[in-house]
Amino acid sequence: MLTVALAATLVVLVFARDISRSAHDSLSPRRSENRTFASMGNVLLGQQDAFDGHLTYLLTNGATLTRPVFAARLSQLDEQLPQWLIEANQIRRPRLAHDINDVLGLVSETRVDAYQSLLASIALALALPWHSSAPVDTVVSTAQAQAALRATGAQWNRARFGLRHEPGRASLLALSDFSALLDFTSALSTLAHSSSLAVTRGIGVSAVSVTPAPLPAPIGELLLPPTSSLRVGVTVSNASYVKQPVSLTYLLTPINHLGVSIRRTMTATLGPLSSYAFVAPPLTSVANERATLTITVAGAPSGPAMSRLRRYTVVISPSGNG
Predict the structure, then answer these.
(1) Shared-domain flag, residues 37 and 177
(2) Cα separation of 221 and 315, whole Å?
(3) pLDDT band at residue 136 using 50, 70 and 90 as cut-offs
(4) What is the CATH number of the domain that holds 311?
(5) Range of the domain at 310
(6) Into how many domains does the chain fold?
(7) Poorest-pLDDT segment among 11-25, 53-67, 251-265, 268-282
(8) Which residues contact 46 (CB under 8 A, 6 or more apart)?
(9) 42 with 100, same domain?
(10) What is the pLDDT of residues 179-215, one digit of tens each?
(11) For the chain, what is the total number of helices (H) and then of strands (E)?
(12) Same domain for 237 and 156
């Protein structure tokens, strides 16, 4: 009987050891998963809090910046948002206790949409060039975007304690809500009335080229060899940091009743602080013709030290003369 009792005790001890080891081994991967999620999740949460602080600072202090610098800061913020979606998708597997990683993923996606809407609203209010990759159907009003930020911030700040008593005792960062609580209308009004951010439009003709190449002549005169047509190219510059639609008009008016009157108009949209070269189809001409070529640019006032009007006297040499 003693032998049987000892054998039974040994069996129980071995069985208990196996159960203990199995339980211990099952906790180890959970602990590792929770801690890995906390590490990756806190990186994402830290990025979102930093973004929130930078956006709030830009809205409250941006009036001291120039338009190009402000636009660059805004674009830098927008470029961060797609990366959040990648990171939010990565942390969703494996599934953790309380579905906490899925909660963070959904919260991050919603906040990306909200922030993209806020950035687009800022760019629109200041007439800044904007090329966000956000789908049009995700853009909402600033009030809706701020409400979404407040709601998701509160949701996450309740859920973030879900792993505190789980294996690994993971600690997760809270989400800030500075831009969600900011008086957005007042901030945009202040920015829009800033002299350094105000829209100032200015355009002008920066260069004119003529084919065939003119011969030496006084300023304002285009002396051309005998030709049946001439091609005029005009470069128009936008002196402002704003997209600017412009129209360019060529008017060739005969002076000595040779040739015919020709008028052509072309349009384009110039990017901020950029230039555009207009090249019209060939203008018909005849030998010995004298005409006035008037080039006019419309769409905005003349920029500093720029002119929207160029006028030339065109002289076509007689046939047979060089």
Answers:
(1) yes
(2) 7
(3) low
(4) 2.60.40.10
(5) 203-316
(6) 2
(7) 11-25
(8) 173
(9) yes
(10) 999 999 999 999 999 999 999 999 999 999 999 999 9
(11) 6, 9
(12) no
